[in-house]
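hey can u check if this looks right to u? its 967 residues, i copy pasted from the old doc so theres a chance i mangled smth
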Amino acid sequence: MLHSHLHLNLQFLSPHSSLPSSNHHTIPFPTPIRRPSSSTTTLRLRNCSRRITNSATNDKLNETEKKKPPQQTVNRAYPFHEIEPKWQRFWEQHRTFRTPDDDIDMSKPKYYILDMFPYPSGAGLHVGHPLGYTATDILARFKRMQGHNVLHPMGWDAFGLPAEQYAIETGTHPKLTTVTNINRFTSQLKSLGFSYDWDREISTIEPEYYKWTQWIFLQLLKRGLAYQAEVPVNWCPALGTVLANEEVIDGVSERGGHPVVRKPMRQWMLKITAYADRLLEDLDDLDWPESVKEMQRNWIGRSEGAELEFCILDGDGKERDMQIIVYTTRPDTIFGATYLVVAPEHPLLSSLVSTAQSNYMEDYIDIASRKSDLERTELQKEKTGVFTGCYAKNPANGEAIPIWVADYVLGSYGTGAIMAVPAHDSRDYEFALKYDIPVRWVVMPDDKSINESGKAFPGEGIIVDSSDTLTGLDINGLCSKEAAQKVIDWAEQGGNGKRKVNYKLRDWLFARQRYWGEPIPVIFLDDSGETVPLDETELPLILPELDDFSPSGTGEPPLSKAVSWVKTTDRLSGRPATRETNTMPQWAGSCWYYLRFMDPNNSKELVDKAKERYWGPVDVYVGGAEHAVLHLLYARFWHKVLFDIGVVSTKEPFQCVINQGIILGEVQYMACRDKDGNLVSADSTNMLNEHSLEKISEEKVTKSGDSFVLKDNPEVRLVARAHKMSKSRGNVVNPDDVISEYGADSLRLYEMFMGPLRDSKTWSTGGIEGVYRFLGRTWRLIVGLPLSDGTFKDRTVSVDEEPTIEQLRYLHKCIAKVTEEIEGTRFNTGISAMMEFLNAAYKWDKHPRSVVEAFVLLLSPYAPHMAEELWSRLGHTKSLAYEPFPKANPAYLKDSIIVLPVQINGKTRGTIQVEETCTEEDAFALASRDEKLSKYLDGQSVRKRIYVPGKILNVVLDRKNIKVGVQ
């Protein structure tokens, strides 16, 4: 049971306080260990769940350690090099942070906190990665101590392109590369003391895991949400594979710089568009950053408008039996449409192009096919197009308007065709100016000077010049909204169009021509081509072993080389069949992993319903803003499908999402040299194009106002920039190096102290010194100064005495602040509160054990290794991981110090500071000791005292004894 407040003597923090009854919560401390032993190297085999311990290697390492000469003692603020390995071993050996699977007490509140699980790259972690992991660990430790059942797991998003590309280049199987990388990441994460439940560790490449990824795909297929279609993809002939949009830059492949073209290919698609409205509506109830929700809304891109039909005209101006359907969100501007634009991939294009324009059109379509959708729709790019040689009739006024092809219109959005209104759309306006197409104003803004600005006006206003007696449409004088409704009604009555809701969201392309991914569980009958899903009893369909992972060069995926695996028979009919050789994208395994953490060893179902009802949804989900759209959108889509079929009980997977900022590399200082080699000031960014840059070391730099200058030549201003950490820039800081020099607790504390969690920060190795000194001062305050040999006592210098009111006030203000700041994820200000407490505590003559113990518990989520060691030295025999987190007593939070005026014979002579409850005797004693008041009272005879508590103290002296000259 949580205590409602701290008693005066903090009895709940006594050495005899009890812990929860679960076995792993009551394991006694180990015998103090002074030197860490070599950790066991664990290899995770991806095709089975067992693990192999490389004990022989460890034996050799241990023998080598024994033969090493003793290292020279290094002066450290506190012995983190002994403390941290000791407690990491203890937590691992006793599974301190294991969350019980089957015997959990579901009457207790739960707290599911999750990191966006990492892709285990060969580079390992840099100091930017632990930022979010440290934040979630603080929250997890805090909630455990508040009595919650905490689920805080870690796993690996382990399929993906990097391991496959490395395999192609080196011949190393991606499974071996991935296992090595996972071991590296695991070692680094454990060295930081994160309280993950490693018993729940999962990896997307384990067949036991991707069995259920394949099972979800089959459910999508059953419900018509998975289908095959010919869709345009980014095809790289040189690499012989399809590339994702983010792998194409300026029309060439990111890897190798090879030309990329758009070509149609058979692909698996997932019908995420069927859930567009629900994905949009349910955002409102989520505790997510508004910017993230807005990005999702924009990506879904719901718009209300109309589909309108424009008849195509022949060379004589007569209507052909063919129409172009356009989608528009502004039907009110139809009288301002002076041309149509169709996408280069529009299906009717070949029927529209005249003979005279055909050669130009072929060249233009070829160029457009080499651009990504992002490049084509970029607002800043110059608009290009080709006239088809054909016209269409504007249904509103019967006017013949030209039909153009332009790549700023996409075949995948709307109908692949637009009516262009250059006066009221900036892209259409730029295009019309370039190709001398009429611009006709039909919407008058309130500020009539806008139509003289030389720019398009995309806003709403009053409709003008928009009526035609022949067509019967008159919207003059109406506001934009009324006019739009009238145009839609007119179009529906005349059969020229209809009301339409449209989305930017496209169905999810769910196939990759890759080896290193989940096999898709379908076969194709050889005699009919019929698609047959595997039976659920045949799962998992295990990825076959291959020696050659390179693309085929023909568009066929690498799996097509596994002939004995590809050729199979249908289980029911016995007919010969061929397996699907595309694999799932990396997004697949990361769409639902949060559910598997709830029940990681279940071989009968994806997740037990009772466990899902208890743990779901994820309470806090922390990760980078780069996943704000696609990952979160895809995971929400799958979750809603699983909700519809009864697998999960909540509509949304993640109740709260936090995007941590990034940690930039250290500031780099650059000096500019002109073409003659002379140093010049960097006064403008334009100069950077004309001058060479030279890196300047920090010791040669000083700050002058808002600028950085050379110490030896302050007239030379420098360029000072911090960049995202990357190997190519050479600004990566390895956390292993920081831990070796300052300890894991210092690294954790510094990353939280740098600034607000959600902001980007600049790394400064020098900056870590401050928190390192804070931890050293904490250690010395509680343990004492080192002995002559550099070691420390095994106990502490705290005393078994009652704390003073002042000490309790400092403590409880710290408790209240740290609690409030952890709950608000303002970790930097929580650290500041502990620093302030420490400064106050250093002024005390004695440090009561109850106050020290409470402070250690406050520190423990931030610096868990030091806190565990101090807790042990304070005489406790159990881990503090499940000790109740201190609660602030409101009685000690009030500022009860008041300023009391003191009068001598009715004349105010000074003031003293007293407690509200101060007695007359105490008040007089304080006045007598006050430097200013004592000269009036020393040696004087007091006739009487008049005391009004909290208001005034008046001392009436015997006038016979008043000193001459004093009054």
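The CA atoms of residues 811 and 851 lie 7 Å apart.
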